[in-house]
Amino acid sequence: MTSPIFAFFDPTYFLVIIGLLISMAASGYVNSTFKKYDRYRAQSGITGTDAAQYILQQSGITNVTVQPTKGNLTDNYNGSNKTLNLSEATYQSSSVAAIGVAAHECGHAVQDATNYFPMRLRTAIVPIANFGSTLSLPIIIIGVIFGMNQTLIHIGILLFSLALLFQLVTLPVEFNASHRALKILSGGGLLTASEVPMVRKVLSAAAMTYVAAALATFLQLLRLILLFGGNRDDN
Ligand SMILES: [Zn+2]
User: Fold this and answer.
1) 105 in active site
2) Any residues with CB less than 8 A from the CB of 59 and at least 6 apart, and which?
3) Counting Cβ atoms within 10 Å, is residue 23 exposed (0-12), middle (13-18) or buried (19+)?
4) Distance from the first to the final alpha carbon of the chain
5) Residue 227's pLDDT is what?
6) Contact at 8 Å (CB) between 118 and 169?
7) Residues 6+ positions from 222 with CB-CB distance below 8 Å
8) pLDDT tens, residue by residue, 138-186
9) Which pLDDT value is given to residue 18?
């Protein structure tokens, strides 16, 4: 008989560790790639802020404010208050990496302005995914305590899968923002032809962190299914 406590330190825990290692590798890769191309100053001499303001203007977006935010690689677009937040490393930097990140965030602003469906879907899923990832483990644990109650356990696993759904919907949103950024930068005269491939490398590395996060969540879900998904109460 597996006790609830032992159930969380079983061999399938390796799946969680593999997920963790993949996430750490992806995060290390994006950090080192950003650092590498942060050393290349764009020939145009513009900063991340200049690039963002220029791209927004070119895209006909007038209701978005570009502002600095604290932290490392914390750049984001906030659709609810229409702000494009650039981290300190991006805001005032004229590096190729900074311009690439700023352009990527502009890609999200364009998605918002054009009602890009995956972005709308992602925004709609956020509360459901938060609800699911908060409640899934407690419900599974309660199910285990109540003699491997299959109904509770299945509800818990289903709730956890909402977190994976959120991360899967995030992927097209992120890839599309980078695609838009590269398209704008290739044609806009902000970067030279030799600088665009550098930005592509930075944005591809950033995209890998989202793939890694989805993979890690998938491995956790797989673990929950392996541990609790079978009809253990039949044995
Ligand atoms: Zn993004």
Assistant:
1) yes
2) 106, 109, 110, 113, 184
3) middle
4) 10
5) 86
6) yes
7) 15
8) 999 999 899 889 999 999 999 999 999 999 999 999 999 999 999 999 9
9) 95
Distance 1 CA to ligand 1 centre (A): 46
- pTM to 2 decimals? 0.88
Residues paired with residue 218 on neighbouring β-strands, in sequence order: none
Q: What separation in Å is there between the alpha carbon of 156 and the centre of ligand 1?
A: 29
Residue 1, pLDDT score:
46
Please tell me the distance between residue 105's alpha carbon and the centre of ligand 1 in angstroms.
Answer: 6
Contact 56, 64 (CB under 8 A): yes
DSSP three-state, residue 41: strand
* Measured CA angle at 189 (ends 202, 91), to 5 deg: 50
Percent of the chain residues topping a pLDDT of 90: 84
Is the Cα dihedral 160, 164, 165, 166 positive or negative? positive
